Every structure is written in structure tokens, then in C-alpha cells.
Amino acid sequence: MFSQDQIKALAQPTPSKIILLVLDGLGGLPRMETGKTELETAQTPNLNNLAAKSICGLSQPVGPGITAGSAPGHTALFGYDPFAVNIGRGVLEAVGIDFPIEQGDVLARGNYCTVDGNGIITDRRAGRIATELNAGLCKLLEMKIDDIQVLTAPVKDYRFVICFRGAGLRDAVSETDPQHEGMKPLQVTATTAGAIKTANIANQFVERAMKILADKHPANMLLLRGFSREPEILSMQAIYKLKPAVVATYPMYRGLARLVGMANLPTGATFADEIKTVKEHYNDHDFFFVHIKPTDAAGEDGDFDRKVKILEDVDKILPDLLNLNPDVIVVTADHSTPAMLKGHSWHTVPTMIYSKYCRPDKVVEFSESGCLGGGLGIFPATDIMPLAMANALKLNKFGA
Amino acid sequence: MFSQDQIKALAQPTPSKIILLVLDGLGGLPRMETGKTELETAQTPNLNNLAAKSICGLSQPVGPGITAGSAPGHTALFGYDPFAVNIGRGVLEAVGIDFPIEQGDVLARGNYCTVDGNGIITDRRAGRIATELNAGLCKLLEMKIDDIQVLTAPVKDYRFVICFRGAGLRDAVSETDPQHEGMKPLQVTATTAGAIKTANIANQFVERAMKILADKHPANMLLLRGFSREPEILSMQAIYKLKPAVVATYPMYRGLARLVGMANLPTGATFADEIKTVKEHYNDHDFFFVHIKPTDAAGEDGDFDRKVKILEDVDKILPDLLNLNPDVIVVTADHSTPAMLKGHSWHTVPTMIYSKYCRPDKVVEFSESGCLGGGLGIFPATDIMPLAMANALKLNKFGA
After folding, report:
1. ipTM of the complex
2. Candidates 3.40.50.10540, 3.40.720.10, 2.60.120.760, 3.30.43.10; correct CATH number of B4-85+233-391?
3. Which of A155, A149, A185 is nearest to A167 (CA)?
4. For A69-104, how does the pLDDT look when each residue is reduced to its tens digit (9 = 90+)?
5. Quick one: pLDDT at residue B86?
6. What region, left, alpha or beta, does residue A127 occupy, with left being phi > 0 and alpha being psi -120 to 50 degrees?
7. Taking the CB of the first residue and of the last residue of chain B, which one, N or C, has fewer CB atoms within 10 A?
8. Is A58's CB within 8 Å of B375's CB?
9. For residue B386, which residues of chain A lie inside 8 Å, CB to CB?
10. Closest Cβ–Cβ partner in A29, A66, A88 for B2
11. CB contact, 8 Å: B10 with chain A?
12. Is this structure's pTM higher than 0.90?
């Protein structure tokens, strides 16, 4: 991989515009009966037309055989080494809801959960309680422990953010979520000596929270995951000389985008709303990361047919986005989410890059099998940004 | 390449089973008259059927243009960086015959050879003397030189192991085998200052051995290769949380497998014997490395037709292995051995990975040309283990 410093040295601002359209969890696996994946099953004439004019390939989110979480999957798409940039779940959730992080804060993601009389977890998601109930409970959990302030903020359903604020906090502590029901929540332990204070504070917090939540069934306990602090990373403005913006309906993706410097453009709940948002701000930015969540959600639910339907719906209104005539449009995903696996997977991701200068290949179907013969081959997702920048004529020549 | 530490952090034990079937030296080159390689010439309906259900590709043993020896070829297949793991030939041979290595031992591979009256090598393999004769000669060569004990053990035909045991030995010394007939054996030289004692001992040993062997024509001299000490490497158990086992008819491959922690399952001389061995131990392990030697031997002998025949023989009994219903089966090789080159070569290796979740491509012929269009593309052999682990659902998600 060309280093970001090298890209930075070559990047130049130009008026050309790039749209990075991420159909989350796009890639799939074939249904037994037909031998076709979700994308191969869907009728997607507009994606196929675009593929015919594009250079296509299969991107590898973080490495062969490795299933990418959303954070490394997107970090790679934005051109950052997903191993060098470590964005914890706590920070992600916090940024995604505009939580005002201060320097030194340690953030964690909280899940309300249900425990039985013996403290055994019976539902890791507390029956997916309503966000309003979550908000009420969060207020009860704000407290001071020694010199540390504990702040909370609801995210969605049973998920919330917890912020430990004060001197001497570290994020090198373990999670309390045992990842399985039928077990008790775990103690927080410090993984470095410097984090002992943080572990103690977190354990005290959990103990007090347990008492506060005792009569709040089904949300009568909480689990803490992804203790983390804001990472120090160069912004996309600094690296690519872009004015980047994010259009996403789900907080985590906005959060991730804002960590790399993207402006958040508030939008509605549908792809049509998102396209409208891009249109409205088209003159203010030269890079738009447009995130589509329902493809991934359908895959996670194991709903092959719904994923097909969503892909067809996306395809129907794709022309509205193309009508903006961006100089470069990339269609890809952060990872595959095959309905068959009901979750993220390691499989490569159909990807196409359109520009006037892309050198189209012979691919006429935007799909897993179609992209296999494409001009991009099988390639690391971290190559997408340099390729998009090149196609936008935003990268100077390297060397004399 | 995803680091082994990263893989280690993601690996989880599950009941699923992986079979790694290595057809040593599998890849070939086309015969002039037909334009077809050994594998393309062979009738292999079972391999082809499996390919149709698999994801296929061409693996690169250690790098483009680089001809892999057996050790780096296999090291890469097991997921180890073949440049970071340096397993000398001496250690390999010793482990392969269960030679009881002690800490600090320097091991070399010995070849009996024939020299003429002027000490010029006339046969580097001493007419491939019988193993029994070899064993008798080895006994004559055990001796003490200063404080160093010299131990020997026969391997097979003209090959034996020699072990230098005692304080202050190093393996940074050169070989005595000039690699060509018509030359005299070389002096051992130290390549670091610390290895001078070892070089002196080795030269003294060769001098005494020459006298001992003088009347033992055709084995009237010996050559020493691959001075080495046991490398310190993490086991496959530690990295992959597997219970791995090796089924191989030839000592060196067993030795290599055992260096990375595989249990050795004693077996017979044929592929059918090897399958029987896998069957007998199927419940005790979740990873089976099954090594087939004759493909490579036929290639080394330049015998195109014999290699074709062996591939067809392997294909005929392949169903017995498939009937075990492993969750993942990988068919590949450590390197190509084209009959045309009578030796290992740098060419890519036909490889397929079958699992329920592999995302099959359009490849229906398991061959060099067939695999070229496969979904794995042209890829480093070190990717095979992460991909096999992923397909066995033994790797957790990376990142939130």
C-alpha cells in the first residue's frame, strides 16, 4: 500500500467531485436452489449499466479470510490502514450521536440487558427496549465516583454511551459483556498497570448501576463494551485535500466519517432522502460518502429476499444520484453480509469505479461473479481512495 | 499479510474439520505436442467436480518468480511467513525420523557420495545405496571431537542425519556439497565469528569420516548440507486453536508438520492408506494435513506420463476422503514441479477451497488454466490458512 504520507504529497484540490456509495454488507453467497447470490438475483439494470461503463473488481475489506467489523471495513474504504487506526466501539457510538467528547475521556458502549435472580444474563439486549425508556434510565446512571464524572447518553433501543471523565483514565480495560447469555457479566480488569484506576471506577459504576436498575426489568442490568479514547488520525482534508461530507442514516457511520474529518449532512431515513441531501449540498463539498444501511440489516437478519428487494429499490433510484454527474462514482461496501451467514463475512466485495477515465472492462453485470473478471481484479479496499482520487484527476504524478 | 498475532486473536476452536490435501509438486507445464500440463492431461473427474463446488485460484508459494523448497513451501501453506521461519534441512531431516534433538544441537543432512581417487565427486548419491547399508555406515561415524559429540542416524537410501552436540555450537556455517559432480567437496566455513568452532569441528569430522569410509565404495565419502538448529515458532495449536495432525509417508513432511505442532499419525505407503489413517483418527483432530509425495517425485524424474497417471490414481480414491464430509477441504501444493523442468519451479499452484460457504466461482476444471479464472485469483499461499479457517467458521470478526 502506498502510504498516506505519499498520497498526501501528491493530492491536489480540484473542482471534480467524488461520490462513494457504500451499500453496507453488499456481497453475498449463492442460494442453494439457484446458485445465485442476492445481488445476482436482484434485477438491477442501473447498476449493471453503470458497471458496463466502469472498471470493476472484488475488494478485500481487511485481508483474505478476515471478516471485517464496520469500523475497520470503513476505515479501509476511506484509505486508512485498518490495523493502524484503532477506533473503539465506545468512541464510535459517542461520535455518532454528537456526544461532546473531551480530551482524555474514556468512552464505552453500554447495552441494557436482563438478568435473573442469580445475576445470570437472560437477554443481552433487554428485550430491545424503546429508545425513550433507554433515555430515562441513562439519566439515572449519571454520577460521580471519586474525582471521575460518569456521563451517559442513549443511542438507540437498548444501546447507550457511557463516558468516564477526569484525570488519569486509560482505555486498556476489559469488557463486561461475556458475549453469551447464561453467564454473569464479567468484572472489568486492567490490561496495563496504568489502567487500574479506570478498571476500579468502571467496576464501582457497574455495582451502583446494578442497584439503580434492580427494579427496571427487562433493563435490570447493563453490559459495557469497547472502552476507548479518540484516536489521533490525520483527516481526509489533510491527506486528500478534499472537502468531504457524510450522508448516513445510522449514527455509527456518521461517527466514523466524522472521525476522519467529514462534515455531517443531516438527512432523512431513505436512500431518496440521502440523494436529496447530496443534491442540496452538492456545491459545498467535493467528496460525498453515502451510506446505505438496509442491505446489511437484511443480510444480518438472514433475509435473502429482503436483501434482493432492497438492492432493487436502491437500483431504481440510483439514476437520481447519477444525474448529479459526479466525476467519479464508486459503488462498494465495507464487507459482505451473506443472508446465508446472518452476519458479516470475509468474502470479497463487488466494487466498481466509474469516471470518464476509468478504462472500462468487459463487465456488464454488477455482481460477485460479474466483477471477478473486472479490471481491478481482487484488490485491497484501501486502494479504493487512491483510485477514486486518480480518476478525479486529483493526484499529481509521482517522481520526475 | 494479516499477522499471525492478529489471526491468533481471532481464532476460536469449533467442532468443524479442515483437510489440507497437498499434492506435492502439483503444478506443471504444458507438453509441447498437446499444449496441456500434467494436470490438464490427466482424467480427474472427481477433482473437477470438487472444483465446481469450490472457490479456486492459483497460489504463489513464496513470491513471484521464486522457486520454493519443500520447507518454505510448506511453511507458507501452514500460514507462516516463509522468510521469518527458517527451518534448516538438517533439522527437518532429524525431526522427520524422530531423532531426539536436544537444545543447542546443530543438525545437518548428510548424503553419502562417491569420489574417485582424486577426491572428485562422481556420484552425489552414492548409487542410491540401500538404507540398511547406510545404517551400518552411520554407526561407524559416531565419534567425539574435543568436547563435541557427533551422532548420526540413517534416513533413507543415501541420506542421513548428523548431529553435533555440545557447548558453543552455532549453525552459521557453509555446506560441503558443491551441488555438482566433477568437483571436490567444499570446506566448511563459518559465516559468523561465533561459528568458527562449529566449522572446525565439522571439518575435523569430515576428515576422519573420509578415512573411515575410504574402502566403502560407492559410499566412500559424505556431503553435509543444511546446518541448522531448531527454530522457535508458535505452534498451530497456539495460533489457530486447532488440534492438527499430519498424515505423510515421507519423513521430511512429517518433520516439518511436527515443528509447527502437528501430531504425527503413522500411516502406510499409499494414498489409500493415508485416507484410512485420517478416517481412524477423524474424531481426535480438527485439522489434517495429508501429504502426497509421488506427484513431486514423478515431476523431479521428468516423467510427465507417470505424473499424469499418479494424478489419475489420486483422483480415483479422492471420494473416499470426501466421504468423510470435512467442513473444509483444500487441495493445493507446496510448489509446482513440472516434468519438463525435472525439479521444483516458481510457477503458481492450482488451489481450491471447498466449504458450504466458499462462494463457488465458474471454474469446473481443476487445472492451471482452469483455476486462472477462479474467485481466489492469484494469491499468496500464506492466505490459504486464514481462508480455510474462515470457511470453517473458526475466525471471529475483526473490529467493532
Report:
1. 0.86
2. 3.40.720.10
3. A149
4. 999 999 999 999 998 887 888 998 898 888 988 889
5. 80
6. left
7. N
8. yes
9. 63-66
10. A66
11. yes
12. no
